[in-house]
Specification:
The protein has one helix and eight strands, in the order αββββββββ. It is mostly beta strands and 129 residues long. The protein has one domain. It has a five-stranded mixed barrel with strand order 4-5-6-8-7. It has a three-stranded antiparallel beta sheet with strand order 2-1-3. A hairpin with a 4-residue loop joins strand 1 and strand 2. The structure holds zinc ion (ZN). The site of zinc ion has 8 residues, from loops.
């Protein structure tokens, strides 16, 4: 997920294709190690537990809790709330918060998918009802 020219536009790189293909279909795809049944963040490259070099892609529930957050200041005066979340499956990943008025540690979140005209579909995390 590099965003050099315009931080508001999410673009894929070679390793993140299945993540964005899933996002286009409203599915949160993360990495899974089949031999030892562990889940990893979308950008994980291998399994430190069993040494497997290949992780498969698998669909996560989209449920998460908020670990920490910060407000990023973008060129042009825009701000973007960035969050570190813990997925229900265990891994931590970065994402954007949406419609969270009072962030706090442990806040229950769920992934919702944004489908912009320009750039890739991507998840944002909003408060669970
Ligand atoms: Zn493993």
């Amino acid at each position: 997920m590099s965003a050099v020219e315009d931080p508001g536009v999410v673009r894929r790189d070679g390793r993140s294709g299945p993540f964005f293909d899933g996002a286009a279909e409203d599915r949160l795809m993360i990495r899974r190690c089949v031999p030892c049944d562990r889940w990893y963040a979308p950008d994980a490259g291998g399994c430190p537990a069993c040494g497997a070099a290949e992780l498969t892609w698998a669909e996560a529930s989209g449920r998460a809790t908020l670990v920490s957050w910060a407000v990023a200041h973008l060129p042009g005066g825009e701000t973007a709330p960035l969050a570190l979340v813990e997925l229900a499956e265990g891994p931590w990943m970065y994402g954007r918060l949406d419609r969270v008025t009072a962030p706090r540690e442990g806040l229950p979140l769920r992934a919702r998918f944004v489908h912009p005209d320009e750039g890739e579909s991507h998840p944002v995390f909003e408060e669970q009802d």
